[in-house]
Amino acid sequence: MRVFGRREHRAYRLHFDAFLSEAVSMDPGSDRGLDREELFGLYTSWCLLTGRAPQPETILWLALRDRGITPGRNTVAMTGPAARDYIVASAPSVA
Q: Highest taxon of the source (predicted)?
């Protein structure tokens, strides 16, 4: 496992804090929250919309785990422009 320096760790922390504050909200009424595919898709949409470089998927899962978010067992809901982008991009084509 790679060990991060203090400066690099802070940059990752700020990156994922921004993602969580801009693209998710807590939904205590949720019975399952977002699964792995939804969280990754939402994160990818957020990165594209904000112009931020996506971090490796393993780093995303570590960052979410550090914040108590487990795919499929959480109270996280999508919100904001990244949610709209993900929902539209993943909707089946109606042609």
A: Bacteria
| Polymer length of the chain | 95
What's the start-to-end Cα distance of the chain, in Å? Answer: 46
27: exposed, middle or buried (Cβ count in 10 Å: 0-12, 13-18, 19+): middle
pTM: 0.85
CB 34 within 8 A of CB 78: yes
| Parent domain of 12 | 6-89
Residue 50: φ, ψ to 5°: -95, -5
Domain annotation covers residue 72: yes
Which residue type, as a one-letter code, is found at position 63? Answer: A
How many Cβ atoms sit within 10 Å of the Cβ of residue 64? 22
Residue 35 lies in a domain: yes
* pLDDT of 12: 80
81 contacts 44 by C-beta, under 8 angstroms: no
Q: What is the mean pLDDT of the chain?
A: 88
Q: Tokens 């919100």 appear where? A: 79
